[in-house]
Amino acid sequence: MPNYYSIKFGVGTADADEGRTTSAPTGAYTAANSYPSVYDLFNTVSGHTAPVPGDILVMPNGTTETWAGNKVLGITDGITLVSTKAALREDSEAGAIIQTTAGGDLGIFANVDGVEIIITGVSFISNDKLNITSNNNNRITIQGGTIEFTTASTNDYISMPSKGSLQNYNNVDFKHLVTSSGGVFLPTTAATININGGSLDDSRLIYSTNVTGNGGFEMNINNFDMSLHDTTLPMFNFFYSSTQKALVNISRSKIPASSFEFVDNSNTLANYKVDVWSCDNGSGYHYFEYNRPEGRVKESETVYRTAGDLYDKDISTTHFSAEYQPNSNVVLFSNPLSPRPIKTLKLDLSSAVTLRFFILQQDASATPDKLTHGNVQLRAVHPDTTDTALGVTVNTGEEEATPITVLNAGAADNLDDSTEAWTGSSGNVVKQQIEITIPQNAQTGMDKAVVEFWLDVSIDLDTPSTELFIDTLPDDIS
After folding, report:
1. Are the C-beta atoms of residues 76 and 41 closer than 8 Å to each other?
2. Phi-psi category of 238—alpha, beta or left, where left has phi over 0 and alpha has psi -120 to 50?
3. Cα(78)–Cα(56) distance, rounded to whole angstroms?
């Protein structure tokens, strides 16, 4: 059974074990039954039984533990810290605050490796950095409350200099007085950050410095409201060395309605991905965007094939397409822009199926060059003929009657022209189409075979002002 420690800042006078109970405490906090602060419990109180893994600390909502200057709370392994009602220590209720003033950093963990703690309903307000952990392989879960920075300094961030830290934030609101080169998190090593619920104010989420680090970081964001993000700033800056990586997944979250950059185009990281899907940008539908060093693919509701893809063909009339924005990092064949499948379909493969995808380029100042089978290839990944697992790929480059050995060698290499109608296009427009055939599969159950489609684009569109769109719903021309 856990021991319980009651804490009330500025009121508690308990020493030894006066503020400790072996069963859940009840009733109000008093001077006699409470320790003076979280910090004092771990650093200055004498003669008491020190908290051990599994023990629970309670502090009242509506009170603020304030420290001038830097302060490390020193919470040890296995501790749970909970905000409760002031008059009923047995009832949890968010609202307790721990903060620093006078330019002070706020540290949470004891400075040892392998510490894991849980914090529920307690907010943290830092006048400078918030040092979640400075040691290796530490884990923290913060549930409810707010993490806030009160100065507009580039030094204000959640610092994670340790290796292998895991941080879980559930229904936490992040507030930051943003500057042009600041952010809520500054991960510099192999950290994993999970955010579920809560919100972000107008700050950027990640700002990483140009350090060597230890493997980069991973961030998973779900059910998070970032609609107030300042759209003049990219949400993520990655200034790692080229040997590091950054992996970000954002799903089922609210994002700003106006256009903005998820990733700073000037970042120096050579290995990153920022994937956004099933997010609400104010249109009420499911926005997607996939960022890679080779460019990005994002949803467009303004340019689309008139008879093309819909969000929900049964209840929606809103069309969309996928806009490809490849850059100079693409390399023909070996390193295309191809972040995720453009479409996954159930197909009847009791006989061969041929599908046609439609592509549009537009440019306000010049007519775009036609796309070739060299710089655009379509792949279909389908079940093999011996079992029902995905794993066999057919490629439009391989389907050509004459293998592609010389790229851009003339009109014979161009994708076929198209006469399909598109809505929202402007300027100089080039419309093309590409076809692919998925072979017959005579196995049982292949009348509903799952097939993934990937579009590999190996052309730099950074310099020309060309925009490229693909309709993600193909026509069956079998």
Report:
1. no
2. beta
3. 9
Strands of 339-427 (E only): list them.
343-347, 353-363, 376-383, 390-395, 416-417, 422-423
382 neighbors 349 (Cβ within 8 angstroms): yes
Q: Report the 10 Å Cβ neighbour count for 423.
A: 13
Other Cβ atoms closer than 10 A to 470: 26
Q: Where are the domains of the chain?
A: 4-326, 344-476
Residue whose pair of structure tokens reads 């002002």 in the numeric block:
465
**Residue 22: what residue type?**
T
Q: Residue 342's closest CA among 247, 451, 477?
A: 451
Average confidence (pLDDT) over 385-398? 75
Spatial distance between the Cα atoms of 339 and 34, rounded to a whole number of angstroms: 55
Percent of the chain with pLDDT over 90: 47
Question: Which of helix, strand or coil describes residue 66?
Answer: strand
Per-residue pLDDT reduced to its tens digit, 93-104: 999 999 998 878
Q: Which amino acid is residue 436, in one-letter code?
A: I
* Angle at the Cα of 353 from the Cα atoms of 314 and 391, rounded to 5 degrees: 95
pTM of the full structure: 0.88
- H/E element holding 300? strand 295-300
**Residue matched to tokens 């949470």:** 108
Digit-coded pLDDT (tens) for 442-455: 888 888 889 999 99
- Asked if residues 242 and 270 have their Cβ atoms less than 8 Å apart, the reply is yes
What tokens appear for 146 in the block? 């707010």
Quote the CA–CA distance of 376 and 332 in Å, as a whole number.
9
Nearest Cα to Cα of residue 193 among 173, 171, 164: 164
